[in-house]
Amino acid sequence: xxxxxxxxxxxxxxxxxxxxxxxxxEIISAQLDGTKKNILVNVSYYTGCGExxxxxxxxxxxxxxxxxxxxxxxxxxxxxxxEMDGSQTLSFPLSRYGYHKTELSGAKLTxxxxxxxxxxxxxxxSMYLPxxx
Length: 133
Hints:
Blueprint: E1 7-12, E2 15-20, E3 26-32, E4 38-46, E5 52-64, E6 67-78, E7 85-93, E8 108-116, E9 121-128
Parallel strand pairs: 6-8
Antiparallel strand pairs: 1-2, 3-4, 4-7, 5-6, 8-9
């Protein structure tokens, strides 16, 4: 069986970041869970009949005008490529990625997926981190 390898790239503040061997993933939505301790990310993906591994890579925070913004990328790895649609809700703890810190209170978080070939656009959604007082 022929194995297809994707490379997911993101242009961020003048840098291009890539994740080798990444499979396509579309970010559908993102929100905080009821405890406001986890980010729930709804994803859709195409390819991969075998095991799927998802991770979140933080890409830093910066200030645009008065708004603090943070970027992250969902990385999807699948070893057994085939044609199959799937969807899943992923949970990422804020504390693991440093998003629970007071200095990031209320920051806008944009979560990117890969290039969506069907929509011809980079998949992403934005949400706001909890406000800590």
